[in-house]
Input
Amino acid sequence: MIEDITKEEKFSIRWVIALKDEAEIIIQQYRMKLLSEKSVFPIFKNSEETHWLILSGIGRHNASAATLYLYEKSKAPKWTAWINIGIAGCGVGHFGDLCLVDKIINNSDGKVSFPSAMKNSPFPRMELLTTDIPIIDYTSKKLIDMEACAFYDATSKFSSRELISIVKVISDGPSNNIKNLNRSIISKLITTNISNIIKIVLYYESLSLDEYKRLKKPEIFYKICNQWHFTVSQQHQLERVLRRIATSNIKENILNLLKDCRNSKSVMNILNKQMESYEVDWRNA
Output
């Protein structure tokens, strides 16, 4: 018997953050708790399991490994929104400004990526340069960090670009020496932006929930599978045809149409004929 195990509609958010000082206020805001002291990377989650956060440490390799680790450990569903947030150097802008990244350049190989950014956002969009060593030459006027390109490359393997967000807070630049940064300043930079961060998260929570609804199997799928035996391949075929029916103007009671079916093959035959008949009628209308 196949059951719809989803009891309620939930968004899904995963955070990848390099430093504990950058993450503390977010962990508090979303009431996340440490899962285990023995984890390869520290992982936090809230009681509803809608927010998970991992501390990657600094650098591309750490960011990539931590992102994949969180994906596996949290069993992140397809509708998950991924957020990378942290401090960044910049040749323009002001100390403490929050920026959204819509272009990433990998300084090691020149690869360019174009993450999506929050639509109709009040926050500035900037391109970002990911480097393997700290850079204090700000003449490029780009944001500068050490993780974003690896985070984006990793999340792109299992998520759409619309569900990937990179958020940076300007921490150093021509007028703010990177050597002056300390744990307290880093924490304060993120904390003073928490209201802005919440706005961004609300957007991605909504986006994630919309994606969940789009991917969710139609209710009738489970009713049909519980009444007739379907192979895994047939289940995929059934889901596809039911989605097509759901977006059409077919008004017939599907279960009533199938009442005389003896097996899954006859079910699929009737459903496919129903769609073919509808499509022919539509074209000739």
